[in-house]
Fold this sequence. Notes:
- This protein is mainly alpha-helical and 68 residues long.
- The chain has helices at residues 2-10, 30-42, 53-67.
- It has three helices and no strands.
- It is globular.
Amino acid sequence: MRAFEQALQKLGWTDGHNVRIKARWVAADLERFRRYAAELVAYKLDVLLAGASSSLAVLQQATRVARE
């Protein structure tokens, strides 16, 4: 996460100033991840970043549900 923030800063993006980062950590708790995914989608963010393909699948499902 720190490396991600540092890379953004090099591009002129700073959390709390011109970008807002909302991170969630769930370990192996799939139900918690589904809750967090729905929460993040409800923020109507411009970008969602997934750290793993399993995370991506849950986020994609949450965005589909939000569009219905």
